[in-house]
Design brief:
The chain is of the alpha+beta class and 125 residues long. The chain contains four helices and three strands. It has one domain. It has helices at residues 2-5, 33-49, 92-99, 113-119, and strands at residues 22-26, 53-59, 68-74. Residues 74-125 are annotated as: Disordered. Residues 74-89 have a biased composition (Basic and acidic residues).
Length: 125
C-alpha cells in the first residue's frame, strides 16, 4: 500500500503507471470474514483507483497436478472469493482434515517441551 500511497516509494523497476505491478492473493479457504471485509472496504478501492492488476488464486485440489483456480485477474477488484464451496477451490482445512493435522484456533496453545529437547536447542544467528 505504501508504494501506492507514497509517490517515489518502491523499487526503481516499478513503472510510474504501475503497469508492471501485480498484487497476488492466494486464498486458503479459512480466512476470517472480518479480514476479507476490511480488504474489500479499504484495500481493493485503492488498487482500483491506481489500476493495479490483482490476481486472486487458490488450489484446485490436494495434488500439485490439480493446478490452481484463478478467481479473478482484474485491474478493478471489488470483492474477494474466500469461500471454497461457493468459489470452487480446495481449502487448506480440507487437506488438514484428510491428513489429520488441524491447528488450534483458540484457548491455551500446548507446547511439548520434550519435543523441543528431542530435536535440540535452536541455533542462533
Amino acid at each position: 500500500m505504501r508504494t501506492l500511497l507514497e509517490p517515489g516509494f518502491g523499487p526503481p523497476e516499478l513503472l510510474n503507471d504501475l503497469s508492471n505491478l501485480i498484487v497476488m492473493t492466494a486464498q486458503t479457504g479459512d480466512e476470517w470474514a472480518s479480514t476479507c471485509e476490511l480488504v474489500e472496504r479499504f484495500v481493493l478501492p485503492i488498487l482500483t483507483e491506481h489500476h493495479v492488476r490483482m490476481v486472486e488464486v487458490a488450489r484446485a485440489g490436494p495434488a500439485v497436478a490439480d493446478g490452481i483456480v484463478v478467481s479473478q485477474d482484474t485491474r478493478e477488484p471489488v470483492r474477494l472469493h474466500p469461500d471454497p464451496d461457493k468459489d470452487r477451490f480446495f481449502s487448506l482445512s480440507q487437506e488438514n482434515r484428510t491428513n489429520g493435522v488441524m491447528p488450534q484456533l483458540g484457548g491455551t496453545r500446548k507446547f511439548d517441551q520434550g519435543q523441543r529437547l528431542a530435536v535440540g536447542p535452536v541455533a542462533g544467528p
